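seq/struct pair 1
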Amino acid sequence: MLPRLAAAMLCLWLGAAIGWLFGDLAHAPVLGSLAGGSLGVLAVVVFDAARAHKLMRWLRGDMEAAAPRDRGFWGETGYRVERALRQRERALLQEQHRLQQFLQGIEASPNGVLLLGADDRIEWCSSVAADHLGLDPLRDRQQHVTNLVRAPSFVALLQSSRDGEGVQFPRPGGAGTVSVLVRRYGAGMTFVLTQDVTERERHDAMRREFVANVSHEIRTPLTVLAGFVETLADLPLTESERRRVLVLMRQQTDRMQTLVADLLTLAQLEGSPRPAADRWVALAPVLQRVAADAASLSAGRHLLRLAGGSEESLTGLRGWEIAGVESELYSAISNLVSNAVRYTPPGGTVELMWRLRPDGCGEIDVADTGIGIAREHLPRLTERFYRVDGSRSRDTGGTGLGLSIVKHAVQRHGGELDIQSEPGKGSRFRLVLPASRLRRLPAVDMAAEAKALPQPSASQRA
């Protein structure tokens, strides 16, 4: 303000001095001084008005360019206005950046978020919520959500005054189930949280089915045992009848023991840490135990071609080791071989084969010439207690848990179970183990290895 006043005074005195000189020539020095001073002040005002006009023109525009860089009051004013404007723009950009980060965080969440206005119009919708509810995040903005999501339970929840409650209803198209939680906030705003609960519902259903199956599987032999105990206590039986009842009781007891053992095995597989990758198990002894169990179970009724049944394939196992837990590997292979023996009619063939794939993975194949399995049952074979034919499975002594144990055991070792089967043409179960869990020792005593491997009996060679 002071420089501006000093400039005005300087122009006033300078104009007065010039006016005095001209007035003195005209014999009117006072009038000349007044006129000169007035002109000096007018010049200052005009010059100042020009600067003010430049600033106002910049203020009326988009203010994208720099403010006028004049000296004095208007230059200072323009500079300070521009600085405040740029600071506000930077603050706005920072807020927009934080908002984008916040929205990106919501988008990364597996749960969906839907923001509704006072009249249930869609203010914002995440892509996950749009997928859950069948919406379009951009096209459906400002639309009434109840016109787009017509599930009666959802509409009733929005129209009620209940807060913090949720409902479940089928996803659009029937591809699963979605859970929706509604909370009110602000001035009539509504926060809607969506979650896909399809897998949770499926797991809950499987858990309920598992409990029901276990109860049924245990209750059946217990009922039989209770009946036999009552018979032994109340009825006079001959020695042969008593022995027959005791044999049947032993069978039911063995059935319950097998069921409990399989349940404990499953619980151990699901609850224990993944096998270490530096604990190596020789393949030959595992196959030797499987061979002995299969021969005992078959009792000469089948042709068992264990490890391929030929000298070449036996030596192909020479030195191979698998990183994992021996008991789990044995349980997986044994379950497959015992199932093949049980479901193959007398005179059929059961083969256990090992080979190294071109990609470095290993395969353990169990093939049989049994009754086979229809294609529609294959995806569910590894479910607990799933049976293609329940009566046949119980007759053969199965618990319905064997393939579940196989699947969990091989998956814990980083592998997978592949099943191929056709009714009347037999089945093939393939355990594929990753190359990272296989190794072959560089030097092995072939004679000692051959002694450790299962050798086909005379009946099997026939």
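seq/struct pair 2
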Amino acid sequence: MNAHNIRLRLKESDRTYTITMHLEILAQLPELAARRFAGASYFIVADSNVRRLYGEALLEKFTQRGMNACMLDFPAGEQSKNFKTIHALHTALLENGIRRNSIIVALGGGVVGDAAGYAAATILRGVRYIQVPTTLLAQVDSSVGGKVGIDHPLGKNLIGAFHQPAAVFIDPTVLRTLSQQEFRNGLAEVVKIAAALDKKFFEFLERNAGRITKTNSKLLMEIISRSVKLKAAVVQEDEYETGLRKALNLGHTIGHAIEAGMRFAFKHGEAVSIGLAVESRIAVQMGLLKQEDYTRLVGLLRALKLPTKFPLVKSRERFFSALALDKKTDGIGSTFVLLNRIGRAAIGVHVPREYIEQAVL
């Protein structure tokens, strides 16, 4: 299967990088990196799971080519996305001789991409990094666009930066090692992108929901490619999320508050799936969305075996405190991205607390 190459051109910073998608591209990564970043030293950052699955083999391929490379890792899981991990990465990078012309390789899912990217943004006032996402969620969403960061005890992704990767390499075949839960976790972001931006893509997902599996590489290549093209187009227009890019926060206001309120007992995609359903119910209540579109959205989420019901949060106040601290809040009150219809979202909608309380009962 031929490679899919998407060029992302950033208007504000006048930079361009390529997102390359190809089956088995992970095995070719050292060769591709050597062509693009000649003479660089490489620091592969992975979590403890990905190091075992792919990291050690990738490091060996770098060293077999005579390239200067080393491996750094941290414990897998959202709980590692914090200052402690960043400090440990900074220390290891400095001790292993990182320079301004070095390349950090973020090999893993969204947590690895966010943490390694944030380390790259802050070490030596910024070094280059490449994204090599190994989960569906990271491939379709978090690896593209340069949003990097860590969590704070008061909320998710409250500490971070915009630091664009030098390249992104996507290999759908690595998804075969994901658990079914982790695979479905990524499908939530696919639904979000389609619901917010592209009615035809949403319809494509509806028609093919029963065929989407982690081993159907041909279909996954189509889904990942369409998702990435949509996100790349948005990032090109709005790199720093001041307007259009906010549409990609659909489902995330409630979703992030669920994650923080439940102390990250839910995976990100699961929380976003619930957020999509709850926020769309709010949109129906406010007269912004037709009931039939809400029914279609929830139907697709359920067809993909994603959750749609608000969980029994142990502390409702913790949930609402996290909601108030959401970085999308503008100082006046809770603001949401809400669906107008399938394929189109309204940005910056003020939602009174009573609507939220009704929707999360």
